[in-house]
Every structure is written in structure tokens, then in C-alpha cells.
Amino acid sequence: QVQLVESGDGLVQAGGSLRLSCAASGLTFSSYAMAWFRQAPGKEREFVAAITSSGVFTYYADSVKGRFTISRDNAKNTVYLQMNSLKPEDTAVYYCAATLFNRGRASFERSSGYQYWGQGTQVTVSS
């Protein structure tokens, strides 16, 4: 059974930092590209960042580019999202997701392209 378990949720002030982790089990982690999405209340789920299975290529939403960094440790079956210079508009439930398919940036940005999802973790940024 595949499980993706996020951790690192919290409340932080604007300008602060937070690191999310997503531990994967039940799959060959090094074969999957991984991504982070987020969903704010009343809004659709949106793409945040993705990383290819090897970790060589990363992709970011324009809204987080330069502030967030996605990385992975295939030895630990874990993907991370380092979030710096947080803004109140970053407040959302953050989800990690896994996909076997690597078809470039456009495919990574579509939530429908992912086979597995975590349960989500809350990030709240106060002004």
C-alpha cells in the first residue's frame, strides 16, 4: 500500500520560514517524480513545485519561485519543500504527490497527472 505522509505543518509569521517533508512508502520512490500542491480555502488546488525522479530538474510556480525550494533524498524516500519569505497568501493545505510520468513542466502542473497523494498538512502564515 502506497503512503505519502506530510509533516512540518505550522503557524509562522510573514517573512518566516518553514520546511515540509513528505515520507513515501510502498513504492519505488526513486522512480517517481514528486510534487507539492496547495489548496487555500475556497480555491482550487494549485501547483507549487515539482522535482524529477533523479532530482536533476525542478519546476516552480511563478508565485513561489525564488522563495521555495523542492528537494529529495532518494535514500530516505523523502521529498522536502523549504519555504522562505513566507507571505499570508501562502496559507493553505499543502499536499505532496507522486507520478511515474515525466512529460515536462506542463504535465507536472496538472494535478490529474499524479497517481498518489498525501493527506495534506496545514501551513498558516500570519501578517
Which shape, going by the Cα principal axes?
globular
N-to-C order of helices and strands:
EEEEEEEEEHEE
- List the quaternary state of the chains: single chain
Mean pLDDT: 96
Distance between the termini: 40 Å
What is the percent of helical residues? under 10%
Which structural class is indicated by helix and strand composition?
A: mainly beta
Over all CA atoms, what is the radius of gyration?
A: 13 Å
β-strand percent reads: over 45%
Number of helices: 1
Biggest β-sheet strands, sense, barrel: 7 strands, mixed
Q: Pick out the low-confidence regions.
A: none
- The overall strand count is 11
Detailed description of the structure:
- Strands 2, 4, 5, 6, 9, 10 and 11 form a 7-stranded mixed beta sheet that branches. Strands 1-3-8-7 form a 4-stranded antiparallel beta sheet, with no helix packed on it.
- It is built from 1 helix and 11 strands; from the N terminus they run E-E-E-E-E-E-E-E-E-H-E-E.
- The longest helix is centred in the last third of the chain and has 4 residues, at 105-108.
- It is mostly beta strands.
Primary descriptors:
127 residues; four-stranded antiparallel sheet; 1 helix; globular
Summarize the structure.
This protein is mainly β and 127 residues long. The chain is built from one helix and eleven strands, in the order βββββββββαββ. Strand 5 and strand 6 form a beta hairpin.
